[in-house]
Amino acid sequence: MDAEIIVVGSGASAVHAAQTLVEEGREVLMLDVGVAARDDVPAPPLETFCNLRKRDADQHGYILGPRFESLSWGPTKAGAQVTPARRYMLARVGELTPLRSENFVPFESLAHGGLGVGWGAGSFCFTEQELSAAGLDPQAIAHSYATVAARIGVSRPDDSLIDECASAIGQFEEPLRPSRCIADLLGRFQRRRQRLTKRGFKVGRTPLAMLSRDRGARRAHAYREMEFYCDEERSVYRPWMTLDELQRMPRFRYQRGVLVECFENLHDQVVVSARSAGDRQPLQFRSKRLVLCAGVLGTARIFLRSNPEIRELPLLCNPYSYVPTLAWRNLGREVEERQLSLAQLSVLYDPDGTGANVSMASAYTYRSLMLFRLIKEAPLDLAYSRRLFQFLQSALVIFGVHHPDGFDGGRSLRLANGGRGLEVDFHYSAAQEARSKTRDRAFRKLIRALGCIPLASLKPAAGASIHYGGALAVSEHQDPRRTQQSGRLWGAPNVYVADGSLLGYLPAKGVTLTLMAIGDRVARHVARSLG
Amino acid sequence: MDSTSLISKPVSNALLQPAREQGQYMTDTQREAPILSTYLLGRTCDAATSILYEQALGARGVVMTEAQAKLWARVLRQPRLLPFVDAGLALLDRYNPLRQRIFIMSAVLEVRPEFAGEFLPRRYRWHEIGVLMLGGCSAVLHSLAGVCLVRVLFRDSYGR
Ligand SMILES: Cc1cc2nc3c(=O)[nH]c(=O)nc-3n(C[C@H](O)[C@H](O)[C@H](O)COP(=O)(O)OP(=O)(O)OC[C@H]3O[C@@H](n4cnc5c(N)ncnc54)[C@H](O)[C@@H]3O)c2cc1C
Question: Ligand 1 in contact with A9 (CB < 6 A)?
Answer without folding.
Answer: yes
